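ok so i was messing around last nite and threw this chain in just to see what happens. nothing serious, just curious
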Amino acid sequence: MHSTDVNPITGTPSITVGWEHPTENGGSAVTGYRLYMDDGAGGDYFMVYDGTGNEYTKQFNTDTKISTMVTNDKYRFKVQSINSIGASAMSRESRFLSRAVRSPLPPSPPLRDSRTTVNTPPARATNSSATFRSGDAQVVIQWAPPLDNGGSPITGYNVLINDGQSNSWTDDRVSGTLEQQRLNFGSSAAFRLMYDEETTGLIASSGDLANNIEVALNQLNSIHAATVILAGSDAVVTLYVQGAAHQLRLDGVAGTVTREVKGAGAPEIIAITTDCATASCTVAGSFTLTLTRGATVLARR
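result:
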């Protein structure tokens, strides 16, 4: 059953109650439901909804029947199903507090799923292992919805990851997000970039700066892949890494590195190579890439 909301017109509290189809119908198709509630003071139950002949309706808002509900009072509810033989026994009671919509309670703590793998490339629909390296692990987790949705259906979840280097969650990141960092420096001198304990070779500021940075970063072992675009005088770097990404550092030139998006757990990388007979051949023409999930087209470029 859902929690509660407030009528936006009258401002009176109301409760939206939902239920599920019974697991057994007694040998005859369910044809409807009846909902009962009390007065919030422990009194007898009375019927507030008679859905005989309307088996598809499994939700009811008390505002359509009751205008005297009191904010912060607890109300009890029971429901029964109906078929051609008659009505079922009453369900077990549920109690809800009449209140305004608010944020939900947290879900249950995440549990590790049996599909977690260590040192084994996880199975993917594309059979790609481009993001897997020796020592990598894939953790699959699961959780249960919150006991109280705050009065509105749950629309999604954010999964946060901590890299284990801190006991604080102030540096929260959303799992599956790509890391984006902005490099700003005004010098034309050559420089290096450092990531964790690795340092790139010397990067020339002249020529194709975006390509120069990209080539240098893609030679580091701790970065799976990197792409770079220029935005005015800045270079915006997108990092594909497993786990929590860390900040790049400039070496040999004054400037700043700003983490615009904190990443954790890169999406899958798929490399597409051309079939050339010789190293000097030129690929011409165009092609279309289509990303699908089952029969659903997710993107086309």
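not much to say yet. The first helix runs from residue 209 to 217.
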